[in-house]
Write a sequence for this structure.
């Protein structure tokens, strides 16, 4: 059983500068909920209760967000805004969230390694804060279900457009079932020529604790950073690692156009917004 999730949130968010100069990119809102809220919810809805967020300098807003907020709560009580009050209080009781700081943003592998002490000798989930995945069964739960069968690492994968291959970890895999690949190789952000396929990893992982040992042996890789992908490549040499083509719709909220699309789609699902937004969009065409 997977009980713990690691959410790396220490990145500098340079793609969203200047907004991220003074706010964590994980706190960018999809209408009125920050991106990290969706990611934490995905873990919770998958039955994970213990969440470790790896933060860094300038990320205090994340801790404040998941904490109680007495001033706001008192204000809402005074103004009898009970529905909003419940919503605000629910956030702070979402899960048991722990924070660890990554002093230097040395890469995703290093960020995950920071959680080793807390995770211990257990398999664990990793959810990257940039990806919002809308799915019937939460994406990480789909991966957890496959993990329970084989007790081996599972990575969420999806076909990516040619021009985006350079932005993803790309796998070479043998399709062993309609949505399952046995991964033979994985390359972090390859060029189109180097890429072994167009199947990219999407920021959802269920990993075995051995991964930590491989991260420790991982030399700096792409961008001179310690890459989780490179550690997984070593793991593949020792044990089976699966890729799972999850069902659901993913938004790469680290990409500006995708971020805007996520906001539009979520607005079109909100009863109080959809009519207005739809009318506006139709007027544009
Ligand atoms: C990270 C990983 C990459 C993965 C991607 C998914 O890259 O290093 O392997 O495919 O997330 O979103 P990042 O987007 O943080 O640069």
């Amino acid at each position: 059983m997977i009980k713990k999730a690691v959410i790396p949130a220490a990145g500098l968010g340079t793609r969203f500068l200047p907004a991220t100069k003074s706010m964590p990119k994980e706190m960018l809102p999809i209408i009125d909920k920050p991106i990290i809220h969706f990611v934490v919810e995905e873990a919770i809805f998958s039955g994970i209760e213990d969440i470790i967020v790896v933060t860094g300098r300038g990320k205090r807003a994340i801790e404040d967000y998941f904490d109680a907020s007495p001033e706001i709560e008192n204000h809402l009580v005074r103004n009898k805004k009970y529905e909003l009050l419940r919503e605000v209080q629910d956030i702070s009781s979402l899960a048991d969230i722990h924070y660890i700081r990554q002093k230097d943003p040395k890469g995703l592998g290093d960020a995950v390694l920071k959680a080793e002490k807390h995770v211990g000798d257990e398999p664990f989930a990793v959810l990257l804060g940039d990806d919002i995945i809308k799915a019937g069964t939460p994406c990480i739960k789909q991966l957890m279900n496959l993990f329970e069968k084989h007790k081996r690492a599972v990575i969420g994968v999806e076909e990516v457009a040619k021009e985006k291959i350079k932005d993803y970890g790309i796998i070479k895999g043998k399709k062993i079932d309609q949505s399952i690949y046995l991964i033979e190789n994985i390359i972090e952000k390859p060029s189109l020529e180097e890429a072994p396929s167009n199947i990219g990893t999407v920021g959802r992982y269920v990993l075995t604790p051995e991964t930590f040992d491989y991260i420790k042996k991982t030399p700096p890789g792409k961008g001179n950073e310690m890459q989780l992908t490179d550690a997984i490549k070593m793991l593949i040499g020792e044990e089976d690692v699966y890729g799972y083509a999850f069902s659901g719709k993913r938004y790469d909220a680290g990409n500006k156009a995708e971020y805007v699309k996520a906001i539009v789609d979520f607005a079109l699902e909100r009863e109080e917004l959809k009519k207005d937004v739809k009318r506006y969009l139709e007027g544009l065409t």
Q: What stands out?
A: The longest helix spans residues 271-284.
